[in-house]
UniProtKB/TrEMBL annotation:
<feature type="domain" description="C3H1-type">
    <location>
        <begin position="251"/>
        <end position="276"/>
    </location>
</feature>
<protein>
    <submittedName>
        <fullName>Putative ribonuclease ZC3H12D</fullName>
    </submittedName>
</protein>
<dbReference type="GO" id="GO:0004521">
    <property type="term" value="F:RNA endonuclease activity"/>
</dbReference>
<keyword id="KW-0862">Zinc</keyword>
<keyword id="KW-0255">Endonuclease</keyword>
<dbReference type="Pfam" id="PF18039">
    <property type="entry name" value="UBA_6"/>
</dbReference>
<dbReference type="InterPro" id="IPR051101">
    <property type="entry name" value="ZC3H12/N4BP1_RNase_Reg"/>
</dbReference>
<keyword id="KW-0460">Magnesium</keyword>
<keyword id="KW-0863">Zinc-finger</keyword>
<dbReference type="InterPro" id="IPR000571">
    <property type="entry name" value="Znf_CCCH"/>
</dbReference>
<dbReference type="InterPro" id="IPR040546">
    <property type="entry name" value="Rege-1_UBA-like"/>
</dbReference>
<comment type="similarity">
    <text>Belongs to the ZC3H12 family.</text>
</comment>
<dbReference type="Pfam" id="PF11977">
    <property type="entry name" value="RNase_Zc3h12a"/>
</dbReference>
<dbReference type="GO" id="GO:0036464">
    <property type="term" value="C:cytoplasmic ribonucleoprotein granule"/>
</dbReference>
<feature type="zinc finger region" description="C3H1-type">
    <location>
        <begin position="251"/>
        <end position="276"/>
    </location>
</feature>
<dbReference type="InterPro" id="IPR021869">
    <property type="entry name" value="RNase_Zc3h12_NYN"/>
</dbReference>
<dbReference type="GO" id="GO:0016787">
    <property type="term" value="F:hydrolase activity"/>
</dbReference>
Length: 307
């Protein structure tokens, strides 16, 4: 009986010395409620409550961050919150959520996956735009999954609701795409969406160029957010350069000429000739003319020197 009561109160977090002392005073047959009252009267506290009362010496570090400060730098709203070398990120929340929900469910988990992907890369300015009516309870014709994620991202100052209201029972919704493009354009950032925003491209020529050059498309593969490694095509920048303010250009790689020394294209050949790295690439005819012209020039110069 003593051992069972000792184990029971130890699981509650009380110290063995206090438990044994109370059992000695009240007796081994004392009820558990009486033992608990006596422990409380003595001022004994469970270890879990004591650790919560003590200030923690450990500081949490945000994922993808090397900072040891307890406050995460993602949530600062000043203009200096974006890192020096990574572009700001503006996410089309509706597009990402519907894409993750297979165009049937507004999946808030897809938004969280996209935000986490950019956080782990070190981006400090991340904004997600979602219409305000998505805060309403889900309906059968507009199902929403993991709606609590929107509230969590809003508390972190990452998610922004675009305004909407009801007039005579009808919902009036502001165009959230215009918010997305405008903020990304002003921040000189990147738009994360599979939408092409053709109507906004026709509306503003500056936005047209920006959308063409700064639109980052994506795919979801087994709950994994995956943007392409070549956002602007095979001959465009890499993903790292696309998301960087100061892209690093790769060194040019010359492909050797498949014809080698038998090549007859000369300076018109677009391939690399290792046998003549320091001389101009001349055609075979030009090389022959140069060889014939050289002794003639030397002979004429010698005749001019003779008296």
């Amino acid at each position: 009986v003593h051992q069972s009561k000792l184990e029971f109160f130890c699981k509650l977090g009380y110290g063995k010395k206090d438990i044994c002392k109370v059992l000695e005073n009240l007796g081994q047959e004392a009820l558990e409620d009486d033992v608990l009252k006596e422990l409380i009267r003595m001022g004994s506290k469970p270890q879990a409550l004591e650790t919560q009362a003590q200030p923690s010496l450990l500081k949490l570090v945000a994922r993808g961050s090397c900072s040891t400060s307890p406050g995460s730098k993602w949530f600062r709203e000043d203009d200096s919150d974006s890192s020096d070398h990574l572009r700001p990120i503006v996410i089309d929340g509706s597009n990402v959520a519907m894409s993750h929900g297979n165009k049937e469910v507004f999946s808030c988990w897809g938004i969280q996956l996209a935000v986490d992907w950019f956080r782990e890369r070190g981006h400090t300015y991340i904004k997600v735009f979602v219409p305000l009516w998505r805060k309403e309870p889900p309906r059968q014709d507009c199902p929403i999954a993991d709606q609590h994620i929107l509230e969590e991202l809003e508390k972190q100052s990452i998610l922004v609701y675009t305004p909407s209201r009801k007039v005579k029972g009808k919902r009036v919704v502001c165009y959230d795409d215009r918010y997305i493009v405008k903020v990304a354009y002003e921040k000189d950032g990147v738009i994360v969406s599979n939408d092409h925003y053709r109507d906004l491209q026709n509306e503003n020529p500056e936005w047209k160029w920006f959308i063409e050059q700064r639109l980052l498309m994506y795919s979801f593969v087994s709950n994994r957010f995956m943007p392409p490694d070549d956002p602007l095509g095979r001959h465009g920048p890499t993903l790292n350069n696309f998301l960087s303010k100061n892209p690093v250009l790769p060194e040019p790689k010359w492909q050797p000429c498949p014809y080698g020394k038998k090549c007859t294209y000369g300076n018109k050949c677009k391939f690399y000739h290792p046998e003549r790295p320091h001389q101009a690439q001349l055609s075979v005819a030009d090389e022959l003319r140069a060889k014939v012209r050289a002794p003639l020039i030397l002979g004429g110069a010698a005749e001019q020197r003779d008296p």
